[in-house]
Every structure is written in C-alpha cells, then in structure tokens.
Write the structure tokens for this entry.
Amino acid sequence: MIAGISLLVVIIALSLVFIYKREMLYRVRLKNLSGSTKELQDELEHTADQVVKRMELHISQLEYLISEADDKIALLDKKLAEVDRRAARKQTTLDLSENNEKYSYYQSEDSLLSDSGEAKQKACAPIVDAPRSAGKAQADGNHKHVILTMAEQGYDVTEIARATGMGRGAIMLLIQLHKKQEKNSN
C-alpha cells in the first residue's frame, strides 16, 4: 500500500512536472510568436512608410508634369489664336480684293451701260451715208471686244444686247463671224 501510495504520488508529481513543462513551452512559444508578430508588424509599418514616400514622390512628379502640360496648352492656345488672327486677316484681305475685283467689274459694266446709252442714242439717230470717222470705228471695235468678251464669259445674246444697246441680230452676227475667223485661223 505504501508502495501504491508512493507510486501514486510519483505519478501525480510526474503529471504536475509534465503539465508545468508543457505550460512553460506554451508560454515560450507564445512569447516567440508575439515577438515575431511584433517584428512582422514593424516590418509592415516600415514597408508601408516606404510605399507612402514613393507615392508622394510620384504624386509630386505628376503634379509637375501636369503643370508643364498646362503651360504647354496655354502656349498652344496662344499660338492657335495668333494663327486664327492671321487667317482672319488673310481672309479679310482676300474678301477686300474680291470686292475690289467685283467693284471694278461693275464699274466696267456701268461704263458699258453708259456706252450702250450712247449707242442707243446713235441707233435712234437717222442713218447717214457718210464716211466713217476714226472715233466711230474705234467705238465699234470697242463694242466688238466687249461683245466677244461677254460671249466668252457665257452671257446670253439678250444680256449682251441689253448691256451694249445693240440689236440681237448684230450681236449674233459678230459672234458667228468671230467663230468662223477662229476656225479659219486654226
């Protein structure tokens, strides 16, 4: 019995030692684990700080690039405005030159019309079989030139007759004679 009790005490003592050792190993592992967790946390914080610094650097570089792009856009807008102004000036100059051409054309038309008024007066005057004077021959040559020019520009015989004050038959005759002369000269 004493042997049974002592055996029981030894088993209990060994059980207590075993439990104590196990508890100590658990605490050591927990301590090591918490230490490595702390190290991991410190390493993660350090890495996060580096990432934040890199992002701040990239952000500052992007802001610089954006400001440069804005400056270039402003410069291009100024150049575009200058090109638009030059184009507008050129267009104005072209419009003015076109207006001057139209004005000179209409002036020549007006002079033709005033010449036609004189031609109408001459046409209404009685026909006299007198020798042609040099002035009248020159006026007929001028009318011929005007008639042929207007015909080449595509004017209708009626329009040419109104502008020159001559009859349609005379104008048609002049145009046909001119065409025959061109055919014969070719």
